[in-house]
Amino acid sequence: xxxxxxxxxxxxxxxxxxxxxxxxxxxxxxxxxxxxxAGGGYTGWFTFGAGVQVSTAATDNIFHTGTAAAKIYxxxxxxxxxxxxxxxGFGQAFPLAASSNTTFEFSGQAYMPSxxxxxxxxTCSKNRCIVKLAFFNAATGGTEIQGxxxxxxxxxxxxxxxxxxxxxxxxxxxxRRVEALVLYLQxxxxxxxxxxxxxxxxxxxxxxxSGNLLANPSFASALTGWNTFGNVFSDTRAFACRSAGGAxxxxxxxxxGNSSGLYQSFAATPGSSWExxxxxxxxxxxxPIFGTNDNLLVAHIGFFDATNIEIPGGPLxxxxxxxxPIGAWMPTKISGTAPAGTASVRCYLLFxxxxxxxxxxxxxxxxxxxxxx
Length: 373
Known about the structure:
Layout: H1 2-7, H2 9-12, E1 46-48, E2 52-56, E3 68-72, E4 86-95, E5 102-111, E6 128-136, E7 144-153, E8 162-170, E9 177-186, E10 194-205, E11 227-229, E12 231-235, E13 247-251, E14 260-267, E15 273-281, E16 296-304, E17 310-311, E18 316-320, E19 330-337, E20 344-352, E21 360-370
Antiparallel strand pairs: 1-4, 2-3, 3-10, 4-9, 5-8, 5-10, 6-7, 6-9, 11-14, 12-13, 13-21, 14-20, 15-19, 15-21, 16-17, 16-18, 16-20
């Protein structure tokens, strides 16, 4: 297993991350999605922080369509002599029924001008603007129980053009409110502004994956049902969970040639087809993988003979690496057909650490099943 995976690392490092298609969307839930109400403003939105502004033809003259756009930058709290970390932003909130079985997608356009850009390339220690879907356990107030975010502006953002963003998250059964948020995080006194326009919040029934063979696929019972090796743990922190209740966390062994990973095994016959899908994320909240970090999270379907020896050629895919957006859950799906001599099949997730660098990956909501005909 170790040799097989490490031999294909150069190929996997160049591979694209595979996405799963979402269903058609319902109508936009957001009020004033283009920030044009009352001549340009935040009617329908709640706002906080000094850096929440609006762009019109009379001010910055930057907007994607129409006559206005949102503009956001840091609050410069305590600057320049005693800066303190601050967060400003805007959003809209919507109540949820118990066990609503609903998935939300928050999308739109973001722009960073070269004349007022965010400096630096370290996303997690410098200014960053994120969009976020946050779920709470009460219609008002309460505690955040699940969240998914996506960086739409930092020192690595392509400037002077409108960039499309989109994040998706499914409401946990205990959620009573969802908030669609745009947040600007400013650790110190760095400049930089981000413009946001033409946002949408859509919802649709959460797809149900039939035929899932995995025990404990969403880690609600810690690591019960999984075979693990290296550094694999369960995590229940809200930021770490795609679906509330638990997630898996992997990081390297810091021993050259050794992987961390987990798997489940099932009986299989030659010619049978199999499908493995998962969601993976790396976060500023816990040792992110970004920049020159060459760690990889690899998804693999392995076919084994009657003597429990792996038959070479099972499918592999990169589920997460330094090119993955920080804070966003990224879907991956692979499939394969059992070759001659197969007696069993395993679905693996492997954390590869080529140069013993730090960094962690989170996984949640895994599905392994016989491939649909």
